[in-house]
Description:
50% of the residues lie in helices and 16% in strands. The protein has helices spanning 19-32, 51-61, 77-87, 107-115, 132-148, 165-173, 181-188, 211-225, 228-258, 265-297; strands at residues 5-12, 37-44, 66-71, 92-95, 120-125, 157-164, 192-197, 305-308, 311-312. Helix 9 (228-258) packs antiparallel against helix 10 (265-297). It is elongated, with a radius of gyration of 25 Å. Uridine-5'-diphosphate (UDP) is lined by residues 11-13, 15, 45, 74, 76-77, 80, 97-99, 101, 207-209.
Amino acid sequence: MNRKKITILLPAYNEESSFDELERCMAQVLRENPDYDWEFLMVNDGSRDNTLQQMIRLHNQDPQHYSYLNLSRNYGKEIALMAGFDYVKSDAMIIMDIDMQHPVDVIPEMTKYWEEGYDDVYAQRKSSKESWLKRNTSKAYYRVLQRLTRVPIQKDTGDFRLLDRSCIEALKQLRETERNTKGLYSWIGFKKKGVLYEQKERLFGESKWSFMQLLELAINGFSSYTVAPLRISTVLGLVVSFAAFLYLIFILVQTLIWGDPVAGYPTIMVTILFLGGVQLLSIGIIGEYLGKVFMETKNRPNYFVESYNGERCSEIK
Ligand code: UDP
Ligand code: MG
């Protein structure tokens, strides 16, 4: 019987210091999982340090297992993953961070469930070493998001997961530019199973996410999942207008019965400012979606590949 092949997909941006650990972990994968053929596909997402040189070194050292894809610039992790999906030819793939915060010891359990027929075996964080604030904001975020959409969302999971060929093919068809890949895994469905793992601390380098990027990811999460915010702004508009209408009647009656002189600078200011705020917010929400439409209608390719295993690519996906 032919052995099944699994690709470990490793996006990397300025990760030159992670490669010793990577080599150690991948050696462990090969040692502990001899029943499969392994490929380690590293995607260089426009790093400005020696990440590419390290990839070339590994590929030359062991071309059977290590391959690399060099993107033409830094596109962000989501697009780097997408590029990776297009180049995975195996029966399954496992997505991991190249900083090796994801422990390779979970892999045997993942493949076990895969063999049992699960298509998407996702790793779920047992305890997170992130700060209290980051932990709780992410918790609240997922709760709200789940309320607004019918697609079931897996909590405390990220990109660390094993995906069967059928999921890879499905993901390859979702070509949107502004991606929230976590949402896409849920959206495509298929048989899912969670396994628990303990997230490790980053050993080298630093986290590549700035606050603004996290915010962008969060907003994208909402706007690529659901149009509920548009509806919320409609409802909010209705509620505010209705309240304003009631207040109008109140003022009318007050003036007619008691004949109060007009004295209302503070009320007018508060009302104008409040309504102005609500309007700006609603316009902003519409803008978010409109911006998405704009980006998608440009219909640009999502990424360009500079080279694959050292060969320059003229082919564009
Ligand atoms: N990454 C990437 N492109 C980017 C930013 C990050 O390919 O523009 C990769 C990075 O090299 C790492 C993974 O995405 O392998 C996760 O990034 P990081 O460790 O910085 O995120 P965190 O673990 O803090 O969520
Ligand atoms: Mg990390």
